[in-house]
Each structure stands twice: as structure tokens, then as C-alpha cells.
């Protein structure tokens, strides 16, 4: 029996050795293929870099000509006019951020079309001042504090009429990182508008003109009116509540002066020992008044910041800041270089198309451009 079992054991061992050898072979082959793939990638990157260097070397003269033309044009523009810029911070209420972007685009369209009369009417400036406008740009004020406050107001600050939903609220809360990643430029409350002009003293009029243009929107005006009425009603309610609590506090004080206890059954000692079965009315009343005072302050602040669809929080500086001439000249020189590069690439592609057409007729492969 022992002699009969030995061939079976040897066969199993040989199969195991064969499987191990096959595994090692496949592993080595995979590593080799991976290394070859890396080598091919490095080679392709090297050939691409070499092709770029050859392109630059062969066309260095034309590229320098484009760079010099852009540089000279920039110097001409700088010597012709001096540009000033200034920033303004505005708060967009009632979902008016898109209107704000549309207004900026509209102004830029008027500037590019040289519609000085429309610009003069919009900003209440002279046509000569309107002709000196260069462009406007807008971007949201983004910071971690602003984003965190938006998240708190959206998800962590329950509405007063939805307190019963707090039990299931957390199950629907969006994670902060997901909320932050899905924000668009139109979702933020504050925006920075940058104006550029060759007139250093016209910026104050520009800010008022943009705000007035947006605030004249009929829909936003109706929303503003409704919000103002709601804020006024809330403020009146809070003022009356504080007045009633103050009257109640005076009544408690009068009872204390007369020696009457304001605690049920007069059990003050139980309160001093920390028992939670009773509470001191005077302390509860004081806490409630502090809470209402805080709500009143927030309500008044909200009324001030929601006085219009667009509220200027930091106006344009009365005198603009001179834009660095080096940046303008270098930018235009870079544009000249890139334009020359694009033209050369188009010429090379056109030559390749001609060679491809010729090779298609003769049956030969086209030469590389």
C-alpha cells in the first residue's frame, strides 16, 4: 500500500511546482510589460519635448517677431492711456446674483460697442467719462468662513416654524465637503466688482449706477417690498414681546419688595439645592429677555442688509489705483508670442494636409510637418 501511494504524492508535488512556476512566470511577464510601458511613456514624452524644442528652434525668428510686436503694442497702449482700477463689494439679496452678472455683462457689451450715450445715462456721467470706461469684472467673495456660515444657515439653523422636524433633520443633512464642492458662483452672498477706466475719479458714480440698474428690476422690487414688510412685522413683534416681559419683570419685582415669593409653594431652599422640579421665574424671565434682545438685533441687522436687492457694502474708492504698466506690457507681449505660435502651427498643419493629399494621389506616405 505504501509503494502504491508514492506516485500519487509525487504527482501532486509536481503539479504544485508547475503552478508556482506558472505564477512566477506570469508575474515576471506582467512586471516586464509594466516596465516596458513606463519606458515607452518616457520615450514618448522625450520625443514630444524634442519636437517642441525643434519647433521653437526652427521658428525662433517668427516667434521673436510676434513677441516684439506684442511688446511694442503694449508699450503703445501704456503710453497712450493710463488705466486705473478699483474694487467694490456688494451683497446680493433675493437671488439677485444672476442679475448682477447680467448687469456686468451688459455694461461690458455697451463698452465694447462704444455706446457712450447709454453708459452716460446708466451711470449719470458725461459721455466723455463714459468713453473712458474699459471694462468691468465680477467674482464671488469666497472664504472658508463665508462657506461655513452658508452651510450653517442652510442646514444647521432650523426655521422657527419647523421645530418639529428636528428629529429627522440630521438624517437629511448634506456633508460639508459635498455642500462646498457643489456651490456655484451664483450661490455666494458677497461679490467683488472690479472696474477699469482711464478716469481715476469716476468710480463712485459707477457703483451707484450698477446698484440702481439692478434694484429697478420689477420682480426684485416686489420681493424687496414683501421682505421689508415681513422684517418690520417681526421687529414689531419682538419689541412688543420685550415690552410685555419688562412689565412682567416689574410685577415680579413689586412682589419681591412686598415680601411675596414668586416661586410656587415658596420652596426657595429646594431651588438653592439644585432641584430641577422648580425654576426661579426671575431668572427664566431674564434669560428670555436676553434671547429676545438677540433676536431683535439680528432682525434689525437683516433689515439693514436687505434694504435692496443689491446693497453696496464696500464702495469703489473715490480715486482708482493705477494699474502696473509692466503687467500690461508683459501680458500683451505674451499674447503676441502665443498668436505667432498659433499661426505657425496652422501653417504647419496646412502643409501637412497638402502633403497628405499629394501622397494620397501618388500612394506614398506624407512627410511629417
Q: What percent of the residues sit in helical stretches (DSSP H or I)?
A: 55-70%
Could you tell me how far the N terminus lies from the C terminus, measured between alpha carbons in angstroms?
Answer: 80 Å
The computed structural class is alpha+beta
Radius of gyration: 38 Å
Overall mean pLDDT stands at 76
List low-pLDDT spans: 161-168, 266-277
User: What is the tally of helical segments?
Assistant: 13
Along the chain, the helix and strand elements come as: HHEHHHEHHHEHHHHEEH
DSSP strand content: 5-15%
Please tally the β strands and state the result.
Answer: 5
Molecular shape: flat
Largest sheet: 5 strands, antiparallel
Q: What does this protein structure show overall?
A:
- With 369 residues, the protein is of the alpha+beta class.
- The protein contains 13 helices and 5 strands.
- Strands 1, 2, 3, 4 and 5 form a 5-stranded antiparallel beta sheet that branches.
- α2 runs antiparallel to α13.
- It is flat, with a radius of gyration of 38 Å.
- The termini are far apart.
Amino acid at each position: 500500500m505504501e509503494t502504491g501511494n508514492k506516485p500519487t504524492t509525487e504527482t501532486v508535488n509536481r503539479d504544485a511546482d508547475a503552478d508556482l512556476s506558472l505564477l512566477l512566470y506570469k508575474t515576471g511577464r506582467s512586471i516586464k510589460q509594466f516596465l516596458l510601458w513606463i519606458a515607452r511613456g518616457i520615450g514618448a514624452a522625450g520625443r514630444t519635448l524634442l519636437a517642441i524644442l525643434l519647433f521653437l528652434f526652427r521658428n525662433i525668428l517668427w516667434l521673436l517677431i510676434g513677441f516684439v510686436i506684442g511688446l511694442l503694442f503694449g508699450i503703445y497702449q501704456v503710453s497712450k492711456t493710463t488705466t486705473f482700477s478699483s474694487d467694490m463689494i456688494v451683497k446680493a439679496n433675493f437671488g439677485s446674483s444672476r442679475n448682477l452678472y447680467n448687469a456686468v455683462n451688459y455694461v461690458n457689451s455697451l463698452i465694447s460697442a462704444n455706446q457712450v450715450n447709454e453708459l452716460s445715462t446708466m451711470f449719470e456721467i458725461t459721455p466723455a467719462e463714459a468713453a473712458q470706461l474699459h471694462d468691468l469684472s465680477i467674482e464671488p467673495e469666497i472664504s472658508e468662513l463665508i462657506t461655513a456660515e452658508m452651510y450653517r444657515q442652510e442646514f444647521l439653523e432650523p426655521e422657527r416654524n419647523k421645530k418639529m422636524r428636528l428629529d429627522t433633520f440630521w438624517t437629511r443633512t448634506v456633508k460639508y465637503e459635498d455642500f462646498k464642492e457643489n456651490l456655484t458662483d451664483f450661490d455666494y452672498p458677497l461679490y467683488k466688482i472690479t472696474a477699469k477706466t482711464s478716469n481715476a475719479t469716476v468710480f463712485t458714480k459707477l457703483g451707484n449706477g450698477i446698484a440702481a440698474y439692478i434694484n429697478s428690476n420689477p420682480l426684485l422690487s416686489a420681493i424687496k417690498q414683501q421682505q421689508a414688510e415681513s422684517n418690520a412685522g417681526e421687529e414689531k413683534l419682538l419689541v412688543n414681546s420685550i415690552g410685555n416681559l419688562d412689565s412682567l419683570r416689574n410685577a415680579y419685582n413689586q412682589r419681591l419688595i412686598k415680601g411675596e415669593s414668586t416661586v410656587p409653594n415658596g420652596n426657595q431652599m429646594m431651588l438653592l439645592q439644585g432641584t430641577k422640579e422648580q425654576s426661579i421665574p426671575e431668572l427664566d424671565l431674564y434669560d428670555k429677555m436676553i434671547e429676545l434682545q438677540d433676536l431683535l438685533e439680528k432682525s434689525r441687522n437683516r433689515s439693514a442688509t436687505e434694504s435692496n436687492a443689491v446693497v453696496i457694502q464696500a464702495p469703489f474708492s473715490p480715486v482708482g489705483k493705477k494699474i502696473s504698466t509692466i503687467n500690461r506690457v508683459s501680458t500683451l507681449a505674451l499674447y503676441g508670442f502665443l498668436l505667432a505660435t498659433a499661426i505657425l502651427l496652422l501653417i504647419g498643419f496646412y502643409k501637412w494636409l497638402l502633403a497628405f493629399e499629394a501622397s494620397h494621389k501618388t500612394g506614398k506616405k506624407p512627410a511629417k510637418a
